[in-house]
Amino acid sequence: MGLDIKIPIGLMFSILGLILLILGLVTSGDTEMYEPSLGYNINLLSGGVMLAFGAFMLFTSRLFKKKKREE
Fold first, then answer.
1. Are the C-beta atoms of 67 and 15 separated by less than 8 Å?
2. In this structure, how many other beta carbons lie within 10 angstroms of the beta carbon of residue 3?
3. Global pTM?
4. What does the alpha-carbon distance between residue 70 and residue 46 come to, in Å, rounded to a whole number?
5. Between 42-70 and 6-26, two packed helices, what is the crossing angle to 10 degrees?
6. Residue 38 half-sphere exposure toward CB, CA atoms < 13 A
7. Alpha-carbon span 30 to 35, nearest angstrom
8. Would you state the pLDDT for residue 1?
9. Helix, coil or strand: residue 64
10. What is the pLDDT of residue 4?
11. 46: which of 5, 27, 35, 53 lies 20 to 30 Å off by Cα?
12. If we measure between CA atoms, which residue out of 3, 28, 27, 19 comes closest to residue 54?
C-alpha cells in the first residue's frame, strides 16, 4: 500500500493555516479583538506556524517519494 500519511496531514495543516493567516491579516487592525491574547495577533501567528508545518510535511513527503524512486 503506497499511502503516505504525511500528504493528508500536510494538506490539512496547510489549508487551516492559510485560512487562519488570511483571517489574521484581515483583522489585523482590530485591537479590541486581540486584547484577550495580550495584543498579539494570535490568528496570524498560529496560521503561520500551521502553514509552515503543513509545508514541511508536504516537502518531506515529496522528498521521501523522490528518494524511494531513486532506489
1. no
2. 7
3. 0.82
4. 36
5. 150
6. 0
7. 9
8. 61
9. helix
10. 86
11. 5
12. 19
Match 482590530 to its residue by C-alpha cell.
30
Along the 71 residues of the chain, how does pLDDT read in single tens digits? 678 899 999 999 999 999 999 999 999 888 888 888 888 999 999 999 999 999 999 999 988 877 777 87
Q: Could you give the C-alpha distances from 51 to 6, 41, 42, 56, in angstroms and in order?
A: 14, 16, 14, 8
Dihedral of CA atoms 36, 39, 40, 41 in degrees, nearest 10, equals 80
Residue 52 half-sphere exposure toward CB, CA atoms < 13 A: 6
Separation of alpha carbons 58 and 69, rounded Å: 17
* Numbers of helices and strands, H then E, in the chain: 2, 0
C-alpha cell at 59: 516537502
Euclidean distance between CA atoms 67 and 32, whole angstroms: 49
